[in-house]
Amino acid sequence: MEVRAHQPEPTLAAERVFLEPGTSNSERDRLVWDAFRSGSREALDTIFRAHASGLFAYGSKFTKDRDTVLDCIQDLFVELWNRRQSISATNCIRYYLLRGLRRRITRALHGAKRIEMASRMAGYLDETVDFSAEQILVAQEAEQSNRARLRKAVEGLTRRQRESIHLKFYHGLDTPSIAEVMGLTEASVHTLVSQAVRALRGAV
Amino acid sequence: MKDYTFYSVEDFIIDDDFVAWVKSPDSDLEAFWADFMAANPGKKDEIDEAIRFVKMFATDAPELSSDTLDTLQQQITDRIDIPVSAATVHEIVRARTRRTYAYAYAAAVSLVLLVTAAWWRFDPQITIQPEAPIALTEVAQDALLTEHIVPKGVRSRITLADGTQVWLNADSKIQYARDFMNGGNREVYLQGEAFFDVTPDATRPFIVHVQDVEIRVLGTAFNVKGYDEDGRIETTLVHGKIAIDGNDAYDDITLAANQRAVFMKEEKGLVVQNNVETDTYTSWRRGVLVFDDQPLYEILPILERTFNVAIHTDDAYALDCRFTAKISNKSLSEVLELFRTSDTIGYTIADKDVYIKGSFCNDLP
Q: Which chain A residue has its CA at the smallest distance from B309's CA?
């Protein structure tokens, strides 16, 4: 490619990851992540393709500005790649990425609004997180009537309840991961999710 | 795994292993739940209802178009492949008096440019150290300039001390005082093209100096294009409001959102367009080239900067012919192919030179 002719060749991928049929999700994540950490470009591409859309969906709940979300995802991957030799192992890549993206977006919004927000800093995140129902939560396949009721019920939840069930049912994170991403204890996450599920079940 | 014998519908819904099985089953989970259901046929109703509930929530919806995904992936790849020092940062000493300043500054800049050019051309792996400050005795600490130079063929993004984000296009340069945050105004000097997303601060206006013009803003996002050789300065405002001081060379004007001002140096003229599609002028920062009914004499310099080549054409008429195109992260040969298929041209690429043969537009005399 002419445009990159003068740049150094990318480091060759470390050995490829071969996944046997029947490899468990956590085993697969662990292997792909290890390949990424040892410098595999193929692993980077695999991870990007598998998670970019989900990361965007999550990031978009914090700000309406598409470019900020896309930039944060870009920065996240570049930084992970640059620090690949010092990052820790994981068997849940999604959790690792979501946590990184949340920090990054919070920092980006924090920085941009630093001046006008200075006096209200403490409650900042709570004021901006917008897990609105109409944007995400409900699958197209769900029955029409149930969908409408579920949406309405989701709107009645608190922001933290919405974020917790988004992470649980949209991204499929387990309780310890949700706790890490949201900066809460596992017990609080359990409470949030239970309350939300009870409210939603009552509605449909 | 756990004993699920006494689980209620809600218990199942909240259970991590249950949700994992419903959302992304693997063979371990399938095997476990098949066994469980075979051993506990009485739990079938609860399990079915829990499954129905979990499935009401969407999984990863394709919220990003494949174009956007490709662009994002390319941007990540670009940043990984390009040496970190692609945009070189230098600190230049500015003396107190204007005359000395000009002298020292000119010397420093030419040195920097030489070094940068040589580095870029011959050995991309050498990282150059910031230039040693030119020794001037009565230089105060606050008189230092920081300079970012982005060579042809590369784009860059920087964040200033106030949080303002600056995307620099190929072959561009920005300078600002090192004590940027301490003065009354936030001032930067631009050559080339940049997109600014300025952090609001009503007490300290942000000023972009580009050639003879000063663009004064409070907090807003806008694109400025002012390459010396283009003979024009283009400002496109995405949101907010900006004032442009023509400094006697041009009229002063105020721009509102979606307006674009073009100062033409030779004619000393000014054109303001309303309701422009701002993305046309700002999408370069995502690696997308957009040409909206633009003549080749505008398009070719952009390709030269983007791909770090010199383009030679032997058809003088061709330069007036107009093209409309949107090109996402293509290589130079892919871009030339696009032009080739839309018209009767051939091209040769010889290292950093591109020779275009034939006529671009058939309908010209």
A: A3
